[in-house]
Design brief:
The complex is a heterodimer of chains A (373) and B (358). By secondary structure, chain A is mainly alpha-helical. Chain A has 15 helices and two strands. In chain A, a hairpin with a 2-residue loop joins β1 and β2. Chain B is mainly α and 358 residues long. Classes of the chains: A mainly alpha (373), B mainly alpha (358).
């Protein structure tokens, strides 16, 4: 077939764009239907339908500053979810391991950072400040490297080529071990992240827009910026460096990578270490927003619905999925939460993901190797 | 020498299909049952309360998860959530219909857990892969939230907890504050025996074989005419059913009242999964070994270690328990995927050839 005919045969819009347009069309139709229902009086104020379908949107329209605030908070939470999911995708692509321990690595790395800072300032008498904080950061990074090496050596290597369910159970075991180990070394009490010592901005700025005030924490801005730099850096690392190319080769095919002389064991250490560093960054950001404690582990598990949304093997998917989950969650909690008595944040992400499983199981960007039964 | 089937001839098909075809096995199980029956009257109240009752209640859930993980090759991280469903279903049923015996309601609460399980499992079981893990995680968090935020579930108690009412069997109190520990134990034991019998018959029959076929190679199973979705969904429903019954037992007979938001948290789900792995995936007796290990280890470390002179505080013991269980899980996955049940098999094999090496 010549190039001319193939280009002539190509549809005017690409299938992906068509699907997006179709989705938008359906959304618009639903919105129109709601508006018609409200105006025709079929859904009187105070009825269940009105409360669920119309009132939240009217609230959004009436108080745009609150909407902006909610969106911003969702965006920041989403960036952090995206970071956790990113660490997960890295490991899944390179070693095919469904790494349940990514969440606990976030907590563990943050605890190492804060814990070693505490030990150095309080027990060894070093002056508190940026220098010691940087030293603690180095210790945390080194710890993540040692952890990656040990995991590869002790867990992954003997289990190579095992069933994926065995690998998952092994990482659940690792999670449990790290919880116990972390609590044993650093104690179970929540710790305060050394935000100012690390040179991260604190404080907040208020913007007067849209007839109201919007609070923006400086830390959140820093989190978003650092996360973006990190993602860009990782993309560059994967695209242009020798190790990055090896990583992509391993992700494509273990056997082919082995046959051209790439050491799988080495790659796994590097990937787990990279995931560990991503976890550390996430831990710092999240720890600064709340406390550093094992309660973070529950939040970190939200990376799993993010992955269902974005697809297990896609880095852009992890980012977009993280943003969708973060924003969806905050919007849901803010506008629909009161209908359910609040606290729906704990499960909304998972339910969104389950809904997604019904209609697009491979995720937004995942490879289409989903096998239905 | 002691454990040898030589000379035991089977003359009809019924004998051949017996659950315990070897005489020594029958004697052994009879001895174990006899010990289980007299145990509550010999051991101290402390052992009964902190080890035996939770062991019995949890072993039902571990069997349930073993059906799912060990026999069907799926993984669930929401077992504790389904246990909670069982507990609350039982509580609601017995407060709405107090005249029906509690034993029936404990059993019936399993069906509610199974229904909730099917609801959450359906979207993910259509797809191959580990999606069920995420779906059950969704169930876990949603259910935990529901137990705290829906006051109808705990009858609007100001404490937000289940308060187990007094229920009797033949005039004897079996649940509630006045029930004797021994009575609770025996009721629990009855449930465990019944549920084990049920599970054992399921996994040894046609249904169990279809589950194992799905686990070992799904394409081959499909070619043999097993409907994958049905088999997986049934396994998940049965597993949730067991979890539900276990949850009802856990609250009504062991705890005697619980705030399920904290009791049925995700760590309990993990513990049940570890019990399955440590005991041995795909083994009934392994489920009991695993549960015994999980239940006894914290108590032994907390109270046994100081007794032999190792200074250890309760808080430290808890952390060490987490580490031991996590490390042992990984170790067993690498070295002995059949867990403690495999040791049991090796022991039987040794007994069979003793005193000769082979």
């Amino acid at each position: 077939m010549s190039a001319v005919t193939s280009s002539a045969l190509r549809p005017l819009l690409s299938p992906a764009l068509m699907a997006t347009l179709k989705g938008l069309g359906i959304l618009a139709a639903i919105a129109l239907a709601i508006v018609l229902l409200v105006h025709s009086g079929a859904m009187p104020k105070g009825s269940i339908g009105h409360k669920v379908l119309a009132a939240p949107f009217i609230d959004m329209w009436d108080l745009p500053d609150l909407l902006v605030q909610t969106l911003w908070e969702g965006l920041v939470a989403g960036v952090l979810y995206a970071l956790i999911a990113l660490g997960f995708v890295l490991i899944f692509k390179a070693s095919g391991v469904f790494n349940f321990a990514q969440g606990i690595m976030v907590v563990f790395s943050a605890l190492t950072l804060v814990g070693s800072y505490e030990i150095m300032t309080q027990r060894m008498g070093l002056p508190p400040g940026t220098v010691v904080a940087i030293l603690a950061l180095m210790i945390a990074i080194a710890t993540m490297f040692v952890l990656a090496w040990l995991v590869e050596r002790i867990v992954l290597r003997p289990l190579v080529n095992q069933n994926e369910i065995i690998m998952l159970m092994a990482t659940v075991g690792l999670t449990y071990f790290l919880i116990g180990f972390g609590e044993y070394i650093f104690g179970g009490n929540p710790k305060v992240m050394i935000t100012a010592q690390l040179g991260l901005p604190v404080g907040q700025t208020q913007f007067n827009i849209l007839g109201g005030r919007v609070n923006i924490q400086h830390l959140d801005v820093a989190a978003a910026v650092i996360a973006s730099i990190m993602i860009a850096g990782l993309a560059f690392f994967f695209q242009y460096t020798r190790i990055g190319r090896a990583l992509r080769a391993v992700a494509d095919s273990h056997k082919a990578a082995l046959s051209v002389g790439i050491s799988l064991n080495q790659i796994w250490v590097i990937v787990w270490f990279t995931a560990g560093v991503v976890a550390l960054v996430t831990g710092i950001m999240w720890g600064a927003r709340s406390d550093v404690s094992f309660a973070l582990e529950i939040i970190a598990l939200k990376a799993l619905p993010v992955l269902i949304l974005g697809g297990f093997t896609s880095v852009p998917g992890a980012i977009v999925g993280g943003l969708i989950i973060g924003i969806g969650e905050k919007m849901g909690e803010g506008y629909w939460g009161p209908l359910f008595g609040g606290g729906i944040e704990t499960w909304l992400a998972y339910v969104i993901a389950l809904g997604f499983l019904l209609f697009r199981p491979q995720g937004l960007f995942g490879e289409k190797i989903i096998e239905r039964i | 020498m002691f454990y040898r089937e030589t000379g035991q001839f089977k003359t009809n098909y019924t004998d051949d299909m017996a659950i315990f075809p070897i005489r020594q096995d029958r004697i052994g199980i009879a001895i174990i049952l006899a010990i289980a029956l007299i145990l509550p009257f010999v051991v101290s109240e402390f052992v009964l309360k902190t080890i035996l009752l939770p062991f019995l209640a949890l072993s039902v859930a571990v069997i349930g998860l073993n059906i799912l993980t060990g026999y069907t090759g799926l993984i669930s991280l929401g077992s504790a959530g389904f246990m909670g469903v069982g507990a609350y279903a039982c509580y609601k049923l017995t407060t709405i219909f107090p005249e029906v015996n509690i034993i029936i309601w404990i059993f019936a609460s399993g069906f509610f857990a199974a229904a909730v399980g099917v609801f959450f499992g359906l979207p993910s079981l259509r797809i191959k892969g580990l999606y069920l893990a995420v779906a059950t995680l969704a169930a876990q968090f949603f259910l935990q939230w529901a137990f705290v935020r829906i006051p109808w579930l705990f009858n609007y108690n100001p404490s937000g907890a289940i308060e187990v009412p007094l229920r009797t069997l033949f005039g004897m109190p079996i649940t509630g504050p006045t029930a004797e520990l021994e009575v609770k134990y025996l009721i629990c034991l009855g449930f465990v025996i019944g549920m084990t019998w049920l599970a054992s018959n399921l996994v040894h029959g046609r249904i169990g074989r279809s589950w194992m076929a799905v686990r070992d190679m799904d394409i081959a199973a499909e070619l043999m005419g097993i409907k994958l979705l049905n088999a997986k969904l049934l396994a998940f429903a049965v597993s949730s059913f067991f979890c539900g019954v276990s949850g009802a037992l856990f609250v009504f007979l062991y705890l005697g009242g619980a705030e399920a938001g904290t009791e049925f948290a995700i760590r309990l789900s993990f513990l049940i999964l570890f019990a399955v792995i440590i005991g041995g995936t795909g083994s009934m007796i392994g489920s009991f070994f695993g549960t015994a290990f999980i239940v006894a280890l914290p108590t032994i470390l907390k109270f046994g270690a100081p007794a032999i002179g190792i200074a250890i505080t309760g808080a430290t013991a808890e952390k060490i328990v987490l580490m031991i269980i996590g490390a042992l899980t990984i170790y067993l996955l690498i070295v002995e995927p059949h867990g403690l049940a495999r040791l049991w098999q090796i022991m039987k094999q040794k007994l069979r050839v003793w005193p000769f090496p082979y």
